[in-house]
Specification:
Order of helices and strands: EEEEEEEEEHEEEEHEEEEEEEEEEEEEEE
Number of strands: 28
Low-confidence stretches: 1-27
Structural class: mainly beta
Largest sheet: 7 strands, mixed
Strand content: over 45%
Mean pLDDT: 79
Amino acid sequence: MKKSYIYLVACTFLFTFGLSFVTGSSVAYASGLSGWAWSSTIGWVSFSSSNPELSGVTPPGSAYGVNISFQNSNPVTPPTNLIGTLSGYAWSPNIGWISFDPADVTSTNCPLLSSCTPTINLTTGAVSGWARALAGSGTMGWDGWIELAGAYHVTNSAVAENRGVTFSSTTRAFSGYAWGSTNVGWLSFANVTCPGCFLPLTVVNPTIASGVITITSSPAGISCNSGSSCTGSFLVNTKVTLTATPSLDYTLQSWSSSGGDTCSAVTGTDSCNIILLNSDTVTPSFVPNLQLNVTKLGTGIGTVTSSDSHISCGVTCSFNYPSGTKIVLTATPNTGSYFTGWSGACSGSNTTC
């Protein structure tokens, strides 16, 4: 019987490019409030010495402000309800310092004889607790307490003043009214904002030789093509999912971040998740896809398969692989045919290469 032979040619190229960084995670965050509250009884109350100065608003002396701080004990999964604690001081030209500081707002002298600590639930927008006018009891025959929301408010009241202070992650501002007895009356928070409660996330999408790679985010806010960068703004501690849509010529290799948070790759996808506790920059790294071609020569019959099953030649004799990929090819001759060897990127007479 006449012997038949199979000759095989396999070609591949290996090279890699990209950027990588080693980063850590931070779980604590603090930011200052901005703007003014307003009462028809005492007028404007400034929440930051960085506010544009109004006549009589800025007190002499050092800087002041009301801050919000919180700590997330799990940098991988954000808590269901992220609670921020207020501290610091606001200034009224009519009644002086209004304190949100724990040293002045304690359970020992709280009107409810329980925790008076002023807090904000950034997840739901609920505000609770008290502030205190430090000069209240000394000069006005008043204990100085100002309730942000709670016992003296009715959440679902048809009257806006009765509903208490709330925070909106959509408008990035506070709304509603605090109550400070007849000495202060209703104190509107409509012009108080928390610009630092939102953090910028920048994606640097590297330039590629051909095709277009798009990076998008969920929640929405980022969408940019290869060779550009784009920035979105997200509520602090938000879980942001970045997704790359590579061209056929490239494969996503890794994600890196340079602001202190980690963008963790989602297994089996071209996405990563980042919990924003810092202003951050994320850079994806891509490698070009290179085509591996298998060509059978000779008059014999047989198949060539790859270790990852993408090639089965016979039928499928080429596949695009990311550069740097190691592939094992196996030649299997049919009965009556013989394998004689490899040429091209593979060599030798073993049935595997």
